[in-house]
Design brief:
Layout: E1 4-8, H1 11-30, E2 36-40, H2 44-53, H3 56-59, E3 67-71, E4 73-75, H4 85-92, H5 113-128, E5 139-142, E6 167-170, E7 179-182, H6 184-187, E8 192-197, H7 203-211, E9 226-232
Parallel strand pairs: 1-9, 2-3, 2-5, 5-8, 8-9
Antiparallel strand pairs: 4-7, 6-7
Helix pairs in contact: 1-2
């Protein structure tokens, strides 16, 4: 396994550890950069992190004027839809934080997943002022699905092989709304990647991702910078070799 694994007692302690490390990473980047670019994840695990970041304990330490927020994946649903990753972040964090509106970069749903992906890729290139290659996010937050997927990169799906595009259309094998997702070149160019994994339903996937050779989508995330796995004891229950970092 590449990266650092930290096992936390429960979701609350995981979210608090993530909040401390997230704020420290953003503070450090803000000292030398005019803008700090972060890609958010969806799901129940990051929700608690977002709620903590909105509290006085953490909110006052974040350089909001420099922070720019993007989304590593999104469903093609309205922004107020229950399955929208943007809605999750808005309810848990954005409406409570002094983040300038122009620093929020949600996925704008177009007529199709392909058109939506292309439009978001164009926004990334314009923001980073980078016509070629993958932009380097300062922090990317990711989750882990029970099947080993991360963002909307599903096992054996075509987006895993993409090397040129930054954002592509994606489709869940269990159905539901079409999606768009960052590709591996974007994830792997990041300065820091945080995997947030909680719950016993993720235990089997986490064991494979951490201990087994193979090509789960999550195992293909090998960033240029730091890789951190923050997991709770329920998710870590099937690990055979446990490395706990204080």
């Amino acid at each position: 396994m590449r990266g650092t694994l930290i096992i936390c007692a429960d979701l609350e302690s995981l979210a608090r550890e993530a909040a401390q490390r997230f704020v420290a990473a953003v503070e450090a980047r803000a000292r030398t950069e005019s803008a700090v670019r972060v890609a958010l994840a969806g799901g129940a695990t990051p929700r608690r992190l977002y709620e903590l970041l909105a509290t006085p304990e953490f909110q006052g330490r974040i350089p909001w004027a420099k922070l720019h927020l993007f989304w590593s994946d999104e469903r093609l649903v309205p922004p107020d839809h229950p399955e929208s990753n943007y809605r999750l972040a808005r309810e848990a964090l954005l409406r409570h934080a002094p983040l300038p509106q122009e620093n929020i970069h949600p996925v704008a749903v177009q007529s199709s997943a392909e058109a939506t992906a292309l439009a978001y890729e164009q926004e990334l290139r314009a923001h980073f002022r980078q016509r070629r290659g993958a932009p380097a996010f300062d922090v990317i937050l990711l989750g882990l699905g029970a099947d080993g997927h991360t963002a909307s990169l599903f096992p054996r799906a075509a987006p895993l092989a993409e090397r040129e595009r930054l954002v592509v259309a994606a489709y869940s094998p269990v159905g539901g709304a079409p999606r768009v997702t960052f590709t591996l070149p974007v994830l792997n160019q990041a300065h820091e990647v945080f995997f947030l994994v909680a719950g016993e339903d993720k235990a089997a996937a986490l064991r494979l991702a951490v201990e087994a050779p193979g090509a789960l989508p999550a195992q293909l995330v090998t960033p240029q910078g730091k890789l951190l796995w923050l997991v709770d004891t329920a998710a870590a229950a099937q690990l055979h070799t446990v490395r706990v970092t204080p």
